[in-house]
Amino acid sequence: MQLTPIGIIHSPYRERGDAPRQGRLSDNEVTLEIFSQFVDGLKDITRSSRIIVLYWADRANRDVLQSRTPFSDVPVGVFTSRSPNRPNPIAFCVADLIRREGRRLIVRGVDALDGSPLLDIKTYAPAIDAIPDATHVSRSPTPENMPHG
Fold first, then answer.
1. What is the full DSSP assignment across 88-130?
2. Of all helices (H) and strands (E), which one includes residue 35?
3. Which of 10, 61, 109, 140 could pair covalently with 23 via S-S, beta carbons 3.0-4.6 A apart?
């Protein structure tokens, strides 16, 4: 398997402690610079108000299999968390597409560190990407907060 970055992310976040816990928690603008060979893939991108940004968390710890969340001191498996530390640190954010400037997309809602490799962009489609009846328990499950169904 080989991943080919389609661009690079320019953000105000230089170090891990600078980035917000989740991109949606920040109003900072971030620039997605698309490499010239992939610019044709941006055709009609401004039809969307939001996009899914997939990037490589290149400074993550790839040996971590359990992590604490902001909601509990009890570690959970990385596959049940949003931690950037994981065997394959593929990260994603749903970003507001503010504008396009040639091969640059100016977005809001991305938590990537400056210089992170951009892997892909997908259109956010509310009809298929938003699942209103999905459940998630943000703390260790107890009989009181277990999802039903």
1. S-EEEEEEEEEEEETTEEEEES--PPTTPEEEEEEE--HHHH-
2. none
3. 109
Question: Cβ(126)–Cβ(132) under 8 Å?
Answer: no
In order of start, what are the domains of the chain with their CATH numbers? 7-58+91-125 (2.40.30.70)
Count, residues in the chain: 149
Cα first-last separation, the chain:
37
* Contact (Cβ atoms closer than 8 angstroms) between residue 89 and residue 62: yes
**What whole-number distance in Å separates Cα of residue 145 and Cα of residue 70?**
17
Question: What is the model's pTM?
Answer: 0.84
Residue 34 Rama label (left phi>0; alpha psi -120 to 50; beta): beta
